């Protein structure tokens, strides 16, 4: 008699939003950010062997839906992510995401996971991992410009991975700053809510910009930025959306993830197409220089890249082993005899 | 107090393999094939308004993993599908698949579904829908060359949609023919197992080829094919894999799904790049001619296209409403305040 229950191979571990949040608390949020940063750094080190397809975008008047695939030759991964700025008007998220890993050798999926929470974690882990390489030595104060959904993750990642102790928050909406300050209280950081951007920048060696304006904005003007700082520019992440005055870019050494994507989506869309940039993976594997002078401005023009999602899914896959923080999804048909799919369907009757 | 359970908007209906099989039996397999054919035909009629991205393939030594996205401007869909011929050696499926629909206006996924079973159904439904347009009038006998996983679905679809009464099965492996004949018994078809391909073709007005050879094979030679038949060529569906002798192609009027894809993957990869073909959607909406003469050989060079998967997912989405044949997946994070993702994570603690 044919066994009607799917075999182990046909079941795909699934991490729901609820289980992702349980996993965060099981591991500890700072430990998870650190773990993610280590996985991302490890994948940046072997950057060259990845299949780096550009993301596949489906644009509409309301927004964009993207598939971001990559592969290291053994494991394949992709992320589904949307961006719909007007969603918040209807009480929906601007961005939602989920992701999948599959075995390259068999094509069988091996992990399906929510990625709204996970993307927030990997974005912060990437920022802090990069700051660990580029920020001035002894940096302990970060200006956090924009107190939206990413701000607390950025703050905790910079604490856990770079040793930041002081966060100086600024947002045009005081309620957002108050929300972030409240969320960060009791987490071992000294948090100051600043009245102005200039005030937020006082004494900061790291400046993170993460605002939501969908246009060419000038969140930082040239005169606000002193020498020797590290700028972690997160918010300029799609065509037509930037945060920094061009003069700052001209004073900075610019580090990016994947130049073909950053030139379209990042701060450097404001610059000439051949403006020199350094690929971050080369700094990490030692083939390019990072910070070379104390008075240098380093700028990480971050837009998010598929390999970071791949690293994050890899981390989750390793962490859920032996836990109950996933359940098995009956996603793949698995007849005993591959030629007898019809028989499998028929035997399921009644 | 924040409600920790996800909102309706954050839950995505998921159709497992088990539920897909239940749905097949709930609807009835012939009724489902007919319903799918109607949805596919409706989408062929409005072919021009679809976003027809080529599939995005990640190739490896062992096989391929593909993402097949499309959109009609209101709904977005994609299918994940792998092809790993050596999988059967290890007791795994050559092809597994799943798919997703999302709302273009919000980017929110609205359906996640297994598609291994569903792809088998939609492939057969597409074949029969096309045969309804191209096969000679009164066709009641089909030669089924290749008795693999697709053969029973093809046979039942041709019965339900085109009125076929007799199936003449041939496979190089008699065990495969016996399996298909056994599965089709008691289903209102007269099934004959033929000893040779020539024998299978006796009296058949429709010839379906669906074999698994991953090479340029000659399943049908020129002398086997009489005038006036309709050939439904399913098996030639990737570069380097064909089933028909080129001479047959030269005697036939050839109908295809999406020429840029069929020229790479279909039988016509054996022909000149500018060999004339007719796009099937134009036959269906009346802007191109189908069968014009009784002695004409019509050939549907089918490779499978993203729009057929989209139609199939659309059908499933409509059919599961009000049933219990899906469950809600907690795939999307949905904080009360979109800026307070961190707070949502923190409140989930303990």
TrEMBL record, chains A, B:
<dbReference type="InterPro" id="IPR023401">
    <property type="entry name" value="ODC_N"/>
</dbReference>
<dbReference type="Pfam" id="PF02423">
    <property type="entry name" value="OCD_Mu_crystall"/>
</dbReference>
<dbReference type="InterPro" id="IPR003462">
    <property type="entry name" value="ODC_Mu_crystall"/>
</dbReference>
<protein>
    <submittedName>
        <fullName>Ornithine cyclodeaminase</fullName>
        <ecNumber>4.3.1.12</ecNumber>
    </submittedName>
</protein>
<keyword id="KW-0456">Lyase</keyword>
<dbReference type="GO" id="GO:0008473">
    <property type="term" value="F:ornithine cyclodeaminase activity"/>
</dbReference>
<dbReference type="InterPro" id="IPR036291">
    <property type="entry name" value="NAD(P)-bd_dom_sf"/>
</dbReference>
């Amino acid at each position: 008699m044919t066994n009607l229950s799917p075999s182990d191979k046909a079941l795909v571990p699934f991490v729901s939003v609820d289980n992702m949040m349980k996993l965060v608390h099981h591991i500890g949020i700072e430990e998870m950010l650190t773990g993610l940063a280590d996985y991302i750094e490890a994948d940046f080190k072997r950057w060259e062997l990845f299949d780096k397809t550009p993301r596949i975008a489906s644009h509409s008047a309301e927004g964009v839906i993207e598939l971001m695939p990559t592969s290291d030759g053994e494991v394949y991964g992709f992320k589904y992510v949307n961006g719909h700025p007007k969603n918040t008007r209807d009480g929906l998220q601007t961005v939602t995401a989920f992701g999948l890993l599959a075995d390259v050798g068999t094509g069988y999926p091996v992990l399906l996971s929510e990625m709204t929470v996970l993307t927030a974690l990997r974005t912060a882990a990437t920022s802090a991992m990069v700051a660990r390489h580029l920020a001035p030595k002894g940096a302990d104060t970060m200006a956090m410009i924009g107190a939206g959904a990413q701000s607390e993750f950025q703050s905790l990642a910079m604490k856990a991975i770079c040793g930041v102790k002081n966060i100086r928050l600024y947002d045009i909406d005081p309620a957002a700053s108050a929300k972030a300050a409240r969320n960060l209280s009791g987490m071992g950081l000294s948090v100051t809510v600043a009245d102005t951007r200039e005030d937020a920048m006082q004494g900061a060696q790291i400046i993170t910009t993460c605002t939501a304006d969908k246009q060419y904005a000038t969140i930082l003007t040239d005169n606000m930025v002193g020498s020797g700082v590290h700028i972690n520019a997160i918010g300029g992440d799609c065509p037509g959306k930037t945060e920094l005055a061009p003069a700052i870019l001209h004073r900075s050494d610019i580090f990016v993830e994947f130049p073909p994507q950053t030139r379209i989506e990042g701060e450097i869309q404001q610059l000439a197409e051949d403006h020199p940039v350094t690929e971050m993976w080369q700094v990490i594997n030692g083939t390019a220089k990072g910070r070379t002078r104390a008075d240098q401005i380093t700028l990480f023009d971050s837009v998010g890249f598929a390999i970071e999602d791949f690293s994050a899914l890899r981390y989750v896959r390793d962490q859920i082993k032996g836990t109950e923080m996933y359940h098995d999804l009956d996603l793949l048909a698995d007849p005993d005899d591959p030629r007898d799919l019809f028989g499998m369907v028929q035997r399921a009757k009644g």
